[in-house]
């Protein structure tokens, strides 16, 4: 995105100091795909982590710079929010009893240079 490119240029040019802490967050409200295999772990392999979490991680690491070497990674996935029946969903209907992929992810990563990302 233009915002990400602008941020990267600001970091690389020295306008912004070397990042020490990165905070990443995304929320998809009422946006469970009601088609395909998105909610089936056996066919999809995972939920929110592989659907868009990987893109947040990639963008964050790109912004932090090439010298970021992970030291420790802690993470947890959850499958609770999607279990509620009769949810309002902007992307069609889905069967909450068969939704078996993660619907929430948290993580904390520390790097060799003592920077961190949450």
How would you summarize the topology of this molecule?
Layout: H1 2-13, E1 21-22, H2 41-44, H3 48-64, E2 70-78, E3 104-111, E4 116-117
Parallel strand pairs: 1-4
Antiparallel strand pairs: 2-3, 3-4
Describe the fold and architecture.
The chain has a 4-stranded mixed beta sheet with strand order 1-4-3-2, with helices on one face. The mean pLDDT is 88. It has helices spanning 2-13, 41-44, 48-64, and strands spanning 21-22, 70-78, 104-111, 116-117. The relative contact order is 0.25. It has 118 residues and is α+β, with helices and mostly antiparallel strands. The chain is built from 3 helices and 4 strands. It starts with a helix and ends with a strand. β3 and β4 (116-117) form a beta hairpin. It comes from Staphylococcus pseudintermedius.
What's the quick description here?
With 118 residues, the chain is an alpha+beta fold.
What characteristics describe this protein?
single chain, 118 residues, alpha+beta, Dihydrodipicolinate Reductase, domain 2, 28% helix, Gfo/Idh/MocA_Oxidoreductase, GFO_IDH_MocA-like_dom, Gfo/Idh/MocA family oxidoreductase
* Average pLDDT metric: 88
Radius of gyration: 17 Å
Tell me the fraction of residues in β-strands, as a range. Answer: 15-25%
Task: Order the strands across the largest sheet as they lie in space.
Answer: 1-4-3-2
Q: CATH H level: which superfamily?
A: Dihydrodipicolinate Reductase, domain 2
Morphology call: elongated
Percentage of residues assigned to helices:
25-40%
Low-confidence stretches: none
């Amino acid at each position: 995105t233009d915002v990400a490119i602008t941020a990267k240029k600001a970091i690389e040019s020295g306008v912004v100091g070397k990042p020490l802490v990165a905070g990443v967050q995304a929320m998809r409200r009422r946006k469970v795909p009601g088609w395909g295999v998105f909610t089936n772990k056996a066919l999809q392999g995972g939920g929110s982590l592989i659907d868009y979490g990987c893109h947040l991680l990639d963008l964050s690491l790109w912004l932090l710079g090439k010298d970021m070497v992970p030291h420790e990674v802690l993470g947890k996935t959850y499958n609770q929010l999607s279990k509620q029946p009769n949810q309002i969903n902007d992307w069609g209907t889905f069967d909450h009893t068969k939704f078996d992929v993660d619907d929430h992810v948290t993580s904390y990563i520390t790097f060799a240079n003592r920077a961190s990302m949450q």
